[in-house]
């Protein structure tokens, strides 16, 4: 009897915040997605799946879905690759290692809002640092944040810049756990630098890679701060991701029904992604 | 495939953070096709020496020559040396087959060739049932054999083995010892083999190198090492049970142990204090000699080890397993052969009268 009480306590107490801040909002959100509530008035009516029909056929949604996939792909892969590259370089050098580690990690601990504000100055077309450098190198100087061709890339660059150091830190730890002898055997067996990377390093750090891919993929779906500060989803919706679309529907257009429908779709998308990664990872992750 | 000669001249290794060198002025020449066994206490630098030869440890000073060429700075991958690591160093993410095939795959051998070689080695090592397993699903002894297999398939002219059988049970170890010797006889690979096992050292080696504190104590055939140890350390290091050592006084060619005359030398040696070493099998049981009080006996099948005390000396002798002795009884013994060590613990190589 006493044991049961203990179990109930230990399971029950952590469940309270989970219920309040996660389960209940989620259920309410799914329920809202079947209504036409306008966020302000006390009354609403049920529209069943109309919100989903509306959303799934709208061109805004299609554009946002594409933007999300595009943004995810071009932030996750470069972040992870750059993180590994930096880790491999930083590991080799002896002097100033701690300094470089610290330097590369600072963007991660700086709030995204602050980072975004600084970068919006850097992106300033005429006097911004970025275009100054490009001009110096005689390269084209685009209107970074106002040209639909470039705005998404601007957001992507900031996101990679912020997260690469974080990925590097995880990779440094993973690399340090590979015994030297495995490389020595490789040397004896005749492995060159490519063989070492392909057959020793990459397989042995694959659990870290999976971890980083999952986390940065989720992070990319939840990207909001940098879009809000730098472009507000524009120009012409070119930086509007699904999450930003949700925000605009909910808090700019007060269309709670459609907004929560988008939110539900985001959850489904995340679940699908996790599912795919889980199965694909079995082929290349070695624990 | 041609076997290869290895010459080591004044080889020294000092780790950056260490006060004294791990290996100091090592000299040796290993002939083509020779089977060399390195023995020595733990931490004396056996593995370090091998790793320098393999090229995975830098050389502080001195020369390493392979087939007459100095290779101090030749990268490991260009030395074509196969090595079994003391710690196995298997790839945890590869199956047994892939671990063994790794070097061949990298060197772009044909698929069928790789398959044949790996299967051949796996057959030899009794690893066929495990080819698809990962190292974590193997026992220590099985892992060790995979490490051995990975080196065997390479067919390199130089083969380095760092305690390759240490983790096997006695039966498998004997079996593997024979297999390795057969392999060596058929391939004539120049081999360096580290072991703590007396039997392996004595039976496998063309020559044994005894190392201590990074310095060569003696290089010689197993018989030379056993019968004519260069110094007290070598004498006591090889041989089981250990050589009996005790301080004696030498007066006019007569060896006195606590006032008892126990032997007459055939050589003229200055009188004085020395140490003698007598192997357990070199004692004769006689009518009058050293009176030994038996403390206990150990029957090891064919042999019987008798442990006894004479004053404060402890003496072990080996005799026929069929004889029996009562504990507490007294027997008289005399050496029929002994080593005489001077103050520097060097052997002076004496013979007994009538030997
Ligand atoms: N990276 C290192 N840095 C400093 N000292 C080292 C290093 N590697 C080995 N040593 C030292 O070098 C000495 C020789 O080591 P080595 O591994 O060659 O011994 P060994 O003869 O193979 O011993 P064992 O029989 O236990 O395998 C040891 O005292 C060890 O502590
Ligand atoms: Mg060793």
Gist of the model:
The complex is a heterodimer of chains A (287) and B (355). With 287 residues, chain A is mostly helical. Chain A has 13 helices and no strands.
Kindly describe this structure.
The complex is a heterodimer of chains A (287) and B (355). Chain A is mostly helical and 287 residues long. Helices cover 76% and strands 0% of the residues of chain A. Chain A has a single domain, classed as MetI-like (MetI-like fold), CATH 1.10.3720.10. The two termini of chain B are 47 Å apart. In chain B, helix 2 crosses helix 3 (111-125), helix 2 runs parallel beside helix 4 and helix 3 packs across helix 4. In chain B, strand 16 (290-300) and strand 17 form a beta hairpin. The model of chain B has no long low-confidence stretch (mean pLDDT 91). Chain B has eight helices and 20 strands. With 355 residues, chain B is of the alpha+beta class. In chain B, strands 6-7-8-3-9-10 form a six-stranded mixed β-sheet, sandwiched between helices. Chain B has helices spanning 46-54, 96-106, 111-125, 140-152, 170-187, 198-204, 222-227, 232-237, and strands at 6-13, 23-30, 35-39, 61-66, 69-70, 81-84, 158-162, 190-194, 207-212, 215-220, 244-251, 254-257, 260-264, 272-278, 283-286, 290-300, 303-310, 313-320, 330-335, 339-341. The chains are: A mainly alpha (287), B alpha+beta (355). Chains A and B meet through helix 8 and helix 9 of A and strand 6 and helix 2 of B. Bound molecules: adenosine-5'-triphosphate and magnesium ion. Residues 15, 18, 22, 40, 42-48, 86 of chain B line the site of adenosine-5'-triphosphate (ATP).
